[in-house]
Design brief:
Layout: H1 3-25, H2 30-52, H3 55-59, H4 63-91, H5 93-100, H6 103-115, H7 121-137, H8 152-183, H9 187-212, H10 220-246, H11 249-256, H12 259-270, H13 280-298
Helix pairs in contact: 1-4, 1-10, 1-11, 1-12, 2-4, 2-9, 2-10, 4-5, 4-8, 4-9, 5-8, 5-12, 5-13, 6-8, 7-13, 11-13
Length: about 300
């Protein structure tokens, strides 16, 4: 298979993951859901590493590689995935999936601040499309008009920030990944280290939290869907790295955006329609964000 096909398969996997994950988090505590997701993904990735990688390269890697990969994992998985699950639980998978597509927007902002890379006119057009897509997908002010009470606008802003927090952190983590790859040139081993570090830290944090707030019971339905979602995201993460090893980064990122329409199409079939409504507004916002992201990625 070519890098393009691997990227498409990874994008389909991420779309299926977000769809099943929405069903799972509806009946779970956000932090428990994220911990399970991390633990299952770590098991999947470590199994792939032991089966396909020279593990001695990891054991002999300098401490800087371990530190940078761990930091990348904590930012991407510990923080990013927590906000992803919180956003899905609050506004649904479809809106969250569309807003996750704003990652190139934050990457452009970070490049401007850290590298002084001023956006071109074409980039500004892409940014404008993304911003318009965010507004259309989840306009907090419009919630008042939907008859949801005077506090709906405030809740809408909180939900929007939760959704945008995940792509914000996902645009930061690659910096530490690049630093780590300078000392250990194995993206798969790197992402496995980051995932395991996140599991360990999350386990400690969840244990401390459980002393004050007991963990609620998990339904069988939520558990099954969470396990399936965790396996899918672990495999999809691996497949994306395979694609990145065979094709340009921009090309892979563009193709994995296929996850957005997949979520929009499948989520209403898996999740209760009262919890997940994929309206014309959501589709319009999704298309605007995808269009703007493609401009920023492929320009």
């Amino acid at each position: 298979m070519t890098g393009a096909l691997w990227a498409i398969v990874a994008g389909v996997g991420f779309g299926l993951f977000q769809t099943l994950n929405r069903r799972a988090v509806a009946g779970m505590d956000v932090f428990v859901a994220t911990f399970m997701q991390l633990m299952i993904s770590a098991l999947v990735l470590m199994s792939v590493c032991f089966a396909s990688q020279d593990m001695s390269a990891l054991w002999n890697a300098p401490w800087r590689a371990w530190l940078n990969f761990s930091l990348a994992g904590l930012i991407h998985f510990f923080l990013g995935w927590t906000f992803l699950n919180a956003s899905q639980k609050r506004i649904g998978a479809a809106r969250t999936s569309a807003l996750v597509g704003t990652t190139p927007l934050f990457a452009s902002a970070i490049s401007l601040i850290t590298l002084g890379e001023v956006p071109t006119l074409v980039s500004l057009a892409g940014i404008a499309l993304i911003v318009a897509g965010v507004f259309v997908t989840n306009n907090p002010l419009s919630r008042k008009e939907e008859g949801k009470g005077s506090g709906a606008a405030t809740e809408g802003w909180i939900a929007l920030l939760l959704a945008l927090a995940a792509p914000f952190f996902w645009s930061i983590s690659p910096t530490f990944t690049r630093f780590g790859l300078q000392d250990l040139d194995s993206p798969l081993l790197g992402v496995a280290v980051g995932t395991v570090a996140s599991v360990l830290c999350y386990g400690v944090a969840l244990g401390i939290r459980s002393l004050r707030q007991p963990i609620s019971a998990i339904s069988t339905d939520a558990f099954i869907f969470k396990v399936a979602a965790g396996v899918l995201v672990g495999l999809s993460t691996w497949l994306r790295w395979v694609a990145l090893d065979m094709a340009p980064v921009a090309f892979v990122l563009a193709l994995t955006l296929i996850s957005v329409p997949i979520v929009n199409l499948l989520t209403p079939l898996v999740v209760d329609r009262r919890l997940e409504q994929v309206t014309r507004r959501v589709w319009a916002g999704s298309l605007l964000i995808i269009g703007g992201s493609l401009i920023l990625i492929l320009m």
